[in-house]
Amino acid sequence: MTVHNYSNICKECGGYCCKQGGSLATKLEVNRIIEAGYPNKFIEISENCYITDFGEDLVCPYLKESACEIYPVRPILCRKYPIFSTNGEEHYLVHCPLTQYLSEEDITQCIEIALEVPDDLFTCAQRFLAPFDSRIDERMRKFKMERIELE
Fold first, then answer.
1. Phi/psi at 17 (5° precision)
2. DSSP for 39-94?
3. pLDDT class for 3, splitting at 50, 70, 90?
4. Nearest 5 degrees, angle CA 146-CA 69-CA 33?
5. DSSP 15
C-alpha cells in the first residue's frame, strides 16, 4: 500500500479491526515478528497456521493504546485490511474510518495482498474460531461491508 501515516485515524477508531479475534499468521510471519524483537503472542493451530492469543475479549494482544505494536512486521491478514476475505474466495471492502482515505490504487494493492493469503490459513482458522463466530460477526457488523467482484 502507498506509504501514508494512518495511525491517527486508526487510533480514533480504537483499532476496532484488531478486536475481531486477533490475527492469523504463517510460521514464517511469526518467526519474522520474533526476530524483530517482539514477544511471541501466537498459538500454533497447525504446522503453518498460528493465531494471536486474543483471550476472552477477542482483542489482539499486539494492540496497544489503539495502535499496532508490530505494525512494521504485521501478518499478511493485517496488511490487507480493510479488505476482509471469507474462505479466501469472497472479498469485501470494510467501510471503516480509514476507507475514505484510501485511493483506488491502495484498495487494489490490498486485494492483491488478500489473494496471497495461503488457503490453509482460512481452513484451520475456521475450526479454531468456530466457538467465537457469533461474537466476531456481531463486531464485524459495526461497519458496512461491500462485496468486491474480482475480474
1. -65, -25
2. ---EEEEETTEEEE--TTTT--TTEETTEETTGGG--HHHHTTTEEEETTTEEEEE
3. very low
4. 95
5. S
The model's confidence at residue 129, banded by pLDDT at 50, 70 and 90, is: confident
Q: CA 112, CA 8: separation in Å to the nearest integer?
A: 25
How confident is the model at residue 2, as a pLDDT?
A: 45
Q: Return the CA Rg of the chain.
A: 15
And the C-alpha cell for 59? 482483542
- Contact by Cβ (8 Å): 98, 78: no
* Residue that is written with C-alpha cell 458496512 in the block: 144
CB 19 within 8 A of CB 58: yes
Above 50 in pLDDT, residue 1? no
C-alpha cell at 48: 503453518
Q: Where are the domains of the chain?
A: 8-148
